[in-house]
Structure formats: structure tokens, C-alpha cells
Amino acid sequence: MKSYLPGLLALVFLTGAATAQSTLYATNSGETRFFSETPAENISAVNAKSQAILNTATGELAVRMNMRDFTFPNKLMQEHFNENYMESDKYPTATFRGKVEPAPHYTQKGTYAVTAKGTFTVHGQSQERTLSGQLIVTDGTIELQTNFDVALADHKIEVPKIVFVKIAQVINVKARYVLKPYKK
Amino acid sequence: MAASKYLGLAAGVLFSAAALAQTDLLDELEQQADTAATPVVATFKSTRIINGHSVETVQRHHLDFRISHRFGRLNSGAYELFGLDQASLRLGFEYGLSDKLMIGVGRSNEQKAYDFLAKYRVLTQTTGARQVPVSVALFGSAVIRTQRSFIPGEERTFSEKLTYCGQVLVARKFSERLSLQVTPTYLYRQRPELATDVPALWAVGAGGRMKLSKRVSVNAEYFWTARGSAQVPYYNALAVGVDIETGGHVFQLHFTNSRGMVEKHFIGETTGSWGKGDVHYGFNISRVFSLEKKTKRASASW
Predict the structure, then answer these.
(1) Structural domains for chain B
(2) Signal peptide span per the entry (chain B) (predicted)?
(3) What are chain A's domains?
């Protein structure tokens, strides 16, 4: 009894770990951009340290990024973005947690039109969203792309009327994440 | 007996393995996130607390155009419209060579003085796993007085018109609202304006800001000077005011007993006394322009 139990346990444990590993794809350097376009001023920023993780077995997807990692061409805007609009000390991250549908053939190279339905949280306010985009399977990587709009009012992001810089009420967001097999 | 014990253990391991596979993906990302050190930004709204410099620098490839005014004394009465008839002015252009190093040039009508400055951020306060408690910047400036002497027959050589200033700025943002700074200062005049003054002057500044809202803060600043027994009609500089930020501009409105806006003047030659009502209303307007090439937007074609 005693002799084979540890072996059995190890086997069970390793199998569990192996299956968990082989289905996860992730990145720590995804790019998320946003654009605010008004007749008076166009503002754009990029976050090149976005994290994303996808479980290809279940279609579960999670995305996370630090608001402070968004860089602007104008540093004063970056400061205002963090200090005044996003309140990054209070709400340091933006996240998405959802499910990719329909399930593409992860073993077959190609570009698949997919949606991700789930919870999008920014500025501490969550919204149920269905984001549409593309999933591109290549050799060893899975690329996710999406393009969607965020209304400031949906996330209680306040822009005062008197500011000199004009900010759009609806912000366009584009994201591209190249995921690789996930190793702990 | 032993078998059941092992069975329980096996069940436990199985369960935890299952839990591992089920681990919330967001938690997984959070564990992977780089939390080593998050820099603390916006300790102050501007590169000045009021008169004196703050630890903030103009960011890389950004230009800060500053217009600063100090009106006459409030106690000059209604005839002078409480000082508004007179104005001391400084115009400045200050530029960020990098995110840590800025240079600047300014011109004050006080003594027709030109000032040249550089400020370097040597340390940035951080939070996270690796914490740095304070931000530290080094400041250096040279000021040249170009106004001719009022004393008949007095001639000054070039170096006798110069004043040098060195400062170590140490600041901490204690909370979202409160930031405080200590500023050890060394001021050197080869030939002071008054013969009774000392060439080398040590001073310590203390200042801070308290945010009232996201865009408005109350600021205060005091410079204590170590003059010893020098017989001079100078006082320590004290200023209180508010900062109002509106997008690209910062407006600083304040009351101060100093007429000048460079270290030579407000640390070394403040002639007003708060006790006597020699208080000047004044303002600084700062407009920051980004000269960064706007290539980033075009590259986002996907």
C-alpha cells in the first residue's frame, strides 16, 4: 500500500499541473491603445505592458493592465489622466474577464472572428460587454485583436467643462495581444 | 487505518490540483504583474512651490513657458491701488532635456537680471516592493545683474555681478493630498548688493502643498536664512498661495513678502516684512508645450 501511494500521488499531481499548463497562453507585453478624437484635439496613449491570459480549453480570457503604464506624447496629459480622470492611486488597474466564443480550432492556423463576452472594469466601474475581434492562430502563438468604444459616463469618469484640453465623451480602444504558451 | 489516512491525503492533493487548474485567470495575472516599484508622480503641480523650486522637473522634450508677476505692496494704499500699479516680472523658458534633467533661462525686471538654471532629479519616491521614501533633486543657477548701479561711480566687474545658487530639494508625497519639501540652500555672491552683507549665505527652505480638490491646492513656503550678525534690511521669505490647474496651464496665485522670483532675490534680498504689511500679491502662469514628435499616433494602424 505504502509503496505505490507516493507514486500515484505524484502522477495525479503532475497530470493535473500538465493539463493546466498546456492550455494556457499569456503575455505581459500586450499593447492597448486609446484614442480621444474631438474637432479641437486628438489625444492618444499606449500601454505596452498589458497582461492577457487565455485558457484554450475553456475559452476563458483575462486581461489586466496598470493605468500608470499608459504613456502619452504629452506628459502633462499623462499626469492629468492618472491624477484627475482615472484616479490611478485609487483604481490602479483596468481588467477584463470573459469568455471567447465561438471556440476556434487552436491547432489550425488561421484568422477567426470571435467575440469575448464578459466584465470590463475601469475606474472601479464594471460593465458587461461583448467585445468583437479577431483571434489569429500561428505557429506557437495566439494573437488577439479588438477594437471597441468606451463611454466615459459608463465608468463614472468625470471631465469638467472648463478644461482647456478637449476630451471626447466616447473613447476608442484598440488592443493587440500576442500570447505564447504560459510558463509559471 | 493507514490506508484511509493516505486516501484522505490523496483526495486533498487531487482537490488542490483541481483548484490549481481552476485558478482565476485574473489572479494569475496579478501574481505575474511587475510590482517591484511604482514611481510616485505629481508630488507638486508645478516646477515651483511658489517662489522656490519643487522636486518636479519639466518632462523630456517639453517646454514650460512661465510668466510670473509680483505686484507692489498691499500696504502702499489706495493711491497705488494696493500695489497693483507696480509690477515685478519674470519671463522664463524652461525645457526638459530628459525626464530627469531640465534647463532654463529667465529674465526679471528686478535688477534687469538674467538667470540660467538646471535641475536634475536624482531620486524618485516609489511604492511597491522596493520603496524609496523621498524624491530628491539637485538645483543650480547663476544670475547676472545687468542693471547699472545706483551708487555714483560704482563699477562692478563681470564676476561681481554674478550670484550662484545651489539647492538640494528633498520632498515626500505623504498622501494624495499632502506633499512636503525641505530645501537646503547655498547662495554665493562675490560682491553682495550691500557692503554689510555676507557673500556666502546658507538657508533652509520648507514648503508644501495640500490639495483641496483634484485641481486646486493650497501652498506655503518659508526660507530661513543664516545671516548671523550681518546688518542688513532683509527678512526671511514667506509665501502662501493656491495652485489652480486647468489642463495645460497651472495658475499659481499667492501673497509673498518678496518682490523677486529668483533665488538671489527672494532668499537673499527680501526687503518686505509680513509684520509691517509689506505683502505683495502675485501670480505665476505656467504653460507646458509638448515638443515630442507625434509619430506614435500614426503608427497605430492595426
Answers:
(1) 38-290 (2.40.160.40)
(2) 1-21
(3) 25-181 (2.40.128.110)
